[in-house]
Design a protein that fits this description.
- The chain has three helices and 25 strands.
- By secondary structure, the protein is mostly beta strands.
- Strand 10 and strand 11 form a beta hairpin.
């Protein structure tokens, strides 16, 4: 009886252990983007860095190597899309995911996986969070930059991170005080290599360009983001997110005109009508005997709808189809010749045939 009980307990423990272990599975998905315009995570992208620590410089590189689906009950993840990222010089691997309103790093520490917030998906001044035992706070947001100031326990550590539109994290500076003085750490992005987008259904090849960023001198945390000198030879333009709200605004202006005998009031009414959003169409299944060209695949619904509207505004019959937790933007091209090249010319997107009739 005692042996039976021990066996039963061990079986329960093993069952619990395997139930808690995350499953990470590589999937064949293209054109997956996570994050926002200040840091787009995209398969094939690469960032090259110079680390300046204690007067010594070292070179490192991040690259995004593949698309995965993650299920981790302990961290509340179910079929979550993750982009596997690697730094070969440090021998580390992690996954970028969107979770709880943030672009996050999902990585294994010892025997467990943890989620670390990296950048808010919708940055706003004053947003705060804890990451790596440091408090992060967004202190500046412009169309081109996001600045995040970082502070450690008892203010022993302070610094900042700068994110640049269409490039990503490109400057990180930190000062750590200890009994021997202070240690300064500075990461500077020297090169950003955007991904090459594959188009398997056409012979057209899209070649990526390279953005080279001139290293800047160290900047104190209190200095403005504009103090970092950056030279960009080319830029990457992911699809912008635009939200337009239909509204009617009435403005009444009442200038007063005074004479010696009477007062006249003149009222001018100006009415401005904003263009409403183009409606989008969702389909629950793929129509048979119909050509379908995929021009985007998004984990966020608003990104997919913006991409769909962009295609609709160019005159393409476009729909959104949900599959494997993703919103896929599909064009129905009809019998238009050289359609893939035309889409590339009109919209700037490399599409591929998801289905042929």
């Amino acid at each position: 009886m005692k042996k039976l009980l021990i066996t039963a307990v061990m079986a329960m423990q093993l069952t619990l252990l395997f139930a808690q272990n995350p499953t990470i599975t590589k999937i064949d998905e293209k054109n997956i983007k996570l994050g926002n315009k200040y840091f787009y995570a995209f398969e094939g992208a690469k960032w090259e860095w110079t680390l300046d620590l204690l007067g010594s410089k070292s070179n490192f590189a991040w690259s995004i190597a593949g698309v995965y689906k993650i299920t981790d009950t302990q961290n509340g993840l179910s079929n979550k899309i993750g982009l596997q990222s690697q730094c070969k010089q440090l021998g580390t691997t992690w996954y970028f995911i969107e979770h709880d309103g943030f672009l996050c790093k999902y990585e294994k520490n010892d025997s467990t996986y943890t989620i670390t917030k990296f950048l808010p998906l919708s940055p706003k001044i004053g947003t705060k969070w804890i990451a790596d035992s440091r408090q992060n706070i967004v202190t500046s947001v412009t169309d081109d930059f996001v600045k995040i100031e970082v502070e450690g326990d008892k203010k022993a550590t302070s610094g900042y991170k700068l994110f640049r539109k269409n490039v990503g994290l490109y400057d990180l500076f930190e000062i750590e005080k200890n009994k021997n003085g202070q240690v300064t750490t500075k990461w500077t992005l020297t090169k950003y290599i955007p991904p090459t987008i594959e188009t398997p259904a056409t012979t057209t090849t899209t070649t990526s360009t390279t953005t080279t960023i001139k290293p800047a001198a160290a900047v104190k945390p209190s200095q403005n983001a504009a103090a970092t000198a950056v030279t960009t030879t080319t830029t990457v333009k992911p699809a912008a997110t635009t939200t337009t709200t239909a509204a009617t605004t009435t403005t009444t202006v009442k200038p007063a005109v005074t004479t010696t005998s009477t007062t006249t009031t003149t009222t001018t009414t100006t009415t401005t009508t904003m263009k409403p959003q183009t409606p989008v169409t969702y389909i629950s299944s793929l129509p048979s005997k119909t050509d379908l060209i995929q021009v985007g695949s998004f984990s966020r619904q608003d990104f997919a709808e913006d991409s769909c509207r962009k295609c609709l505004d160019q005159g393409y019959q476009t729909v959104i189809y949900q599959e494997n937790g993703l919103y896929k933007v599909l064009i129905m091209p009809g019998d238009t010749p050289d359609i893939l090249q035309k889409i590339k010319s009109d919209i700037g997107i490399d599409g591929f045939y998801k289905q042929r009739k």
